[in-house]
Amino acid sequence: MSATPSPVPNTSLSTSGWELQHGSRVWRAFVELLSSMRFAIALLVIVAIASIIGTVLTQGQPYNNYINQFGPFWAEVFRKFDLYNVYSSWWFLLILTFLVVSTSLCLIRNTPKIITDLKTYKEGMREQSMRHFHERGETVFTEGRAATVAHLTGVMRSHGYKFKVQERPAVQEGGAGATMIAAKTGGINRIGYVLTHAAIVLICVGALFDGDMMIKAQMWLFGKEPLKANMLVSQVPEINRLSVHNPTYRGNLQIPDGGTSNMAVLSLGDGVLLQPLPFEIHLKKFNIDFYSTGMPRLYSSDVVITDPKTGKSMPAKIEVNHPLTFDGVTIFQSGFADGGSELFLKAWPMHGPSDKTFDLTGTVGSESQLSNGAQSLQVEFTELRVFNVQDMSPAQTTGVKPKEQSLLSGFDQHLGAPVAAPGERHLQNIGPAVIYKIRDASGQAHEYFNYMLPVELNGEKVFLAGERGSLDAGYKYLRIPADGNDSIDGWMRFRAALFNPRDRQQAAAQYVAASLPPDATAELKNQLLVTAARTLDIFAGEIPNDPKTGKPVVQAPGGLPALAQYLEAAVPQDKLQQASDVFVRILNGTLWQLWQVSREQHGEKPVTQDPAHEKFFDSAVLALSDTFFYPSPLYLQMTNYKQIQASIFQVARAPGKVVVYTGAVLLILGVFAMLYIRERRVWFLVKDRADGGSDTLMAMSTNRRTLEYRKEFETLRAASLGVASPDPTHNPAPDNAST
Q1: Which of 13, 36, 485, 499 is the most exposed place for a label (fewest CB within 10 A)?
Q2: What residues contact residue 297 under an 8 Å CB cut-off, 6+ apart?
Q3: What is the pLDDT of residues 475-507, one digit of tens each?
Q4: Alpha-carbon distance 693 to 300, whole Å?
């Protein structure tokens, strides 16, 4: 097998660019670079990297979300490069523009060469060149040249080759008459190059047209500006509105049940632009169904589309993956949200001795101002969740048994998620919940997640009151036990009594009377009364000051942690466990009496120490201890609600999609042509012999030498040359009939 390269004229496409003959050196170098294939490939790589960034980094989120995720420094760096809106950034659009220009120049420069090559059979191939081909064969036919040519052209025709026959003069072939047969097939392989590059141009043009380029052009030409303030749609000035005839856009609109809208919102950087629609959408009914896990299974919208030009209305149903197209605008079912549900709440005080409540109403998305004369609060109603599914399996629910725990440990186990570690799943809908924020006068806010109904955990019903200080933190839950009427009232009255000094003093006195015999000395009664009152005061957050420093003796605000710190500071280490046991008994006794005091004040009978009441009491004590870490002065209990659903639609006018789809089809065809179609060329040089026969030399080439190509060559050689007898007087070079 010869290692000599094939002498076929090089028809491969050059990676160099268009070389101009005129103009300055800088201009000619720029045009050459811009039209070169290497520049287009580099741009494609950059577009691919930018697309990866746009896929990994969530696009179009509020800037504060990125600050929470990346920190102020990197959030600002990413913002400078428009990484939060990659596909509409100026540099991405500029790269696409250069890619279109570069690829177009490559097409303009190379397409004429490809077309010329498709029409060329290269019948001018010389015998010397043919003998250097890898795939070649040679034999002698006993028939004359004309018969041999007829036989060879028939073989080429039967194998699907197109050919051209050239008669060569005797002078050119050393005095013997000769005929050149040049055949080819698979030339459409070269068309794959044209189709692929044309597809890239079409896809980029379609992407540019359907992107933000048209909107930014309107901003540049007509002075449109994004709106960065909150205001009613009717109050938005014309400078923040686009034309209803805008040729391309993609925006969102939210419509509550029974509502109508014809205005979409287009997010652009830190602001929005309003896009009027050429029709009105009226939402008759939003439909939603859930899986047992609480995730939405199916949601759709029953709508009525009204054309203001004709006044005609058309009912329709829009579902996920089943959009509606009207007047050139496609309407997608994008999601759902709360449409302004009405909330009815009861506000309980969490600080001080009062248990007086007041009613509060609001709507999701609205705000309410509250004030007690000294403190101003703003309540922001965020969300109503009617459907809440949690894993309520025994292994998942968290509970505590206070009497089995030491006073000095485990205080942080009572606050946490309502469900925990993995195990066997038992999913259950635990009822509606309201999410709201309470913001103080300084602007600091905490978010609260309160369930409307009591939830059964470890055989006990509790009200879950979640709280978190930042959006990236998890909720911590205060577990308030429900009383015998499945109400929160009993615990709230218990809490109010704890913060009433008079009630605490009465409870301490009742504890002393119940604990000591009637004949106990006055000194013993007084000592126990002082100890019981002090224990109850410290638990209630009335921390005594150190006489030496004048500062509180403990740092904890109250509850069990304050008692633990007080004991550690006042009792020697070797007697700490003994003192702890005594204080636990005193605390349980005085709190039990305090509970009785709160019941008596509201006309309820004292309770007996049965397991049910003891269980409520233990949970109530832990909840009282945890209230010192509950930052809100109010607990908002949702008593009723009126849910109003809203459907979120995405509307898009994208005429460029036809261009993109066309480009995608061309890309598939082009890649298929380049990868699966091989161009093959065959030459036969037939020369007259002195004995009346004919010498025949065959050569074959392809753009990719594969095993299939080798088989095809062997087949063609056998069909075209294998029928003749070799000339015994001819002395060919070694391996002249093989590769």
Answers
A1: 485
A2: 289, 290, 291
A3: 999 999 999 899 999 999 999 999 999 999 999
A4: 83
